[in-house]
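Minutes, structural biology subgroup

Action item carried over from last meeting: produce the structure token record for G patch domain-containing protein 4 (Drosophila willistoni). EB confirmed the sequence was re-checked against the source entry. Recorded below for completeness.
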Amino acid sequence: MDFAKKILSKYGWKEGDGLGKNNTGIAAPLKASLKFDNAGLGVDRAKEFNDHWWERCFNEAANNVEVQVQTDGHVKTGRKEGEDAVEISTKGYSARKLNKANKEVGGTVYENFMQTTLLTQNGGEVETVQAIKVEDIAVSKVNVLTDEELFKACGGRTAHKGARHGLKLSGKLARLEQQEQEMLEKLQGKQTPAVEAELKETPKKKKKQ
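Output recorded by EB:
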């Protein structure tokens, strides 16, 4: 930055003025954007945190199982096949829907790209009439509940069965707190006589020779 400033000052430029003959150019320098990964330009870095593909695949796999209760009481399980079968994919679109839509519109998909417009010789753009819409091939979205919403949906019940009866299992935390307090008092030299007597009465284990 200092090197560029010296070069511009040599030709009469002053700090705060714009670039160009009439000082009508930009006045603030362009900042370099450092890149240390292999991700392409325009990549959404928050996608891995917002795309809950695991929950979606789990729900679709669960819905793919068919359970039938026969007249004799036996339960028969099966799974859907064909177009109704589950499609496990970590991408944000369905490859099955994409291939089907590509055949219907006459081939507007080229590897990882979809044709949406055509460029003219004059630099203009003409929209493709039979372009594939992103919403038509998108997978179903997953509504992830927060802890408060999940607790409310479960009626205040948790996996701990004793919690519904008022048991919080705070005994271990209380013992840890007491041990920390005793250790703190011991380090500070302010240990109570009762704690000292309890420590003296504790028999020490003999080491085996």
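Discussion: Residues 129 and 182 are 78 Å apart (CA to CA).
Next step: EB to file the record with the rest of the batch.
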